[in-house]
Write a structure and sequence with these properties.
502 residues; mainly alpha; Four Helix Bundle (Hemerythrin (Met), subunit A); two-stranded antiparallel ribbon; 1% strand; binds protoporphyrin IX containing FE; binds copper (II) ion
């Protein structure tokens, strides 16, 4: 028998299993984010030439783990929490297969732990992409596979819950938009994780010496079926969070639900095809192929983001005007709850995702431009604009709502909380713009020492490159400060926050 409670703040009907599954996945996400952020600090302090902190091998080791803990673990743990939230709590029905939720959680936890340990032991300095023929200890690939299988089960729970929820009257004809966005995310996740299995299982066998060798071009093609498509899980989940926050904080509803739903479908249809922007300089694929994929198909996925980026602010505007802020064109904007971190995080996420991530993605994904930006730190600047300034910031904001609705705690340190998204957002914006500017001067990504400082002919720096890498460094330190504040606020509230009755 499921035991339900009615949450006094959100009005949601939540059963106790869903409560626990959301809580533990969020706690794991916070923990991995803390480790990933600390490693990000060490890495950025190494790429900042005037600091150049870490020794050579630690730079690559920590870079590998930063990518894994921040991109894989933090984001996916949080997304699985969103799966449970949107397929049960948001529909007012229960978790139908909580045991599967715990198996998924355990697999992800074990897989994540294996990766962390083996990388820190120095046996898997292969960076996030683990391109062959760079070889890691088999334990590393095993960890990735266990984590991915856990995540796959986590996303499959979405389909099970939603199918059974309809029987119990959780929804009538269509899902609410927050759940619909996570439906898109879950469909893409299944496709993505199958690519992951297709490439990681042979690579595991190769590292064990069972398979002779793996063709690097084939590896890259299938890997990006995993690596890029998974970014569309992140974008869909982020947009679902945008819609849900507009609804929870302001009562905002999309003006044209059909349009918003269609935009999610565009993600499902076109994003996998657009994965080829990672392969634009690869000689193995033909030009025709690359151009059709990245200069045509990619724009259909981008169109979807543009629709959402107008639909969400429009839903906010209408809600605020309904509250009586109707003077002039922009009174609603002035009167928006800028001091509420759940709201401001979403506003920052929409703005930065559009300007830093989206626009640069379209540019760098075009074949001609890609030739001069590929493998420069400009690319790292681009994806810190998408998955950090966009997805991570949105998830931070939503954490504050989950602390209220699911952990049933008030936020501690409300003053700090109200500025946290701004600190993180400004930091990441500086980091990302610094990286993109340095990259446009040709600074490579994943490079320990671009001045070759110990060599007989080491050269001193171009002042403009130094300037932009310092901008990245300052932005990075600021972002880590905002990130640490987020961790302190979230854990602090979970432990010491005033209990919300109900
Ligand atoms: C807290 C602030 C953060 C800072 C200061 C930071 C800084 C950096 C730096 C300096 C690099 C290395 C660039 C290079 O040398 O090639 C990097 C790489 C990377 N970062 Fe971050 N980052 C942060 C947050 C994040 C987050 C939240 C995510 C994911 C959601 C993320 C995902 C990645 C990935 C995937 C890489 C590439 C790893 C690789 O090339 O193998 N970062 N980051
Ligand atoms: Cu991509």
């Amino acid at each position: 028998m499921a035991i339900f409670r009615t949450d006094p703040l959100s009005g949601l009907k939540i059963d106790s299993q869903t409560d626990h599954l959301v809580r533990w996945n969020v706690i794991a996400a916070l923990a991995t984010f803390a480790v990933g952020g600390l490693l990000g600090l060490l890495v950025v302090l190494t790429r900042w030439p005037s600091v150049h902190l870490l020794p050579l091998d630690y730079y690559y080791r920590f870079l590998t783990l930063h990518g894994i803990d921040a991109l894989l673990a933090w984001i996916i743990f949080f997304e699985v929490a969103l799966v449970h939230f949107t397929s049960a709590a948001l529909l007012g029905t229960r978790s139908y297969v909580p045991w599967l939720g715990w198996i998924a959680f355990a697999l992800m936890l074990i897989g994540g732990a294996l990766i962390n340990v083996i990388v820190l032991m120095g046996r898997a300095d292969v960076m996030f992409t683990s391109y062959v023929p760079l070889k890691a200890d088999p334990i590393y690939y095993l960890g990735v596979i266990l984590f991915a299988v856990g995540a796959l089960l986590g996303f499959i729970i979405f389909f099970i819950n939603v199918a059974l929820s309809k029987r119990d009257g959780g929804y009538k004809r269509t899902l609410p938009l927050g759940s619909f966005g996570m439906l898109a995310a879950s469909i893409i996740a299944v496709l993505t994780l199958l690519h992951g299995a297709a490439i990681m299982i042979p690579t595991l066998l190769w590292s064990m010496g069972i398979i002779g060798d793996i063709d690097p071009a084939a590896y890259r093609l299938v890997f990006w079926g995993l690596g890029h498509s998974s970014q569309q899980i992140n974008v869909s989940a982020m947009v679902a969070v945008w819609y849900m926050t507009s609804y929870f904080v302001l009562g905002g509803k999309p003006l044209n639900e059909k349009l918003s739903r269609t935009a999610f479908v565009l993600y499902i249809l076109f994003i996998n095809i657009a994965s080829e922007h990672h392969l634009l300089v690869d000689p193995a694929l033909s030009n025709w192929h690359k151009v059709v994929n990245t200069s045509y198909m990619m724009h259909l996925a981008v169109l979807a983001s543009m629709i959402h980026a107008f639909a969400v602010p429009a839903s906010m505007e209408v809600a605020l005007r309904k509250q009586g802020h109707t003077r002039g064109l922009f009174e609603w904007l002035k009167k928006a709850p800028w001091g509420n971190p759940a709201f401001s995080a979403i506003a920052i996420s929409i703005l930065l995702f559009g300007f830093l991530g989206g626009i640069t993605g379209v540019i760098f994904g075009t074949e001609q431009f890609n030739i001069i930006r590929h493998n420069t730190i400009a690319i790292t600047g681009h994806f810190h604009g998408t998955v950090v300034a966009g997805t991570t910031v949105a998830f931070m904001g939503f954490t504050y709502l989950i602390v209220n609705y699911v952990f049933r705690r008030e936020l501690i340190w409300k003053g700090f909380a109200s500025v946290q998204p701004y600190i993180y957002g400004v930091g990441i914006a500086l980091l990302s713009i610094g990286m993109m500017s340095a990259g446009s001067f040709g600074v490579p990504r994943r490079h320990y020492d671009i001045t070759f400082s110990g060599a007989p002919f080491s050269f001193s720096f171009d002042p403009s490159i130094d300037l932009f890498l310092s901008m990245m460094g300052v932005g990075g330190v600021l972002a880590v400060t905002g990130g640490a504040l987020y961790i302190a606020l979230s854990f602090g509230s979970i432990i010491w926050g005033k209990k919300i009755p109900g």
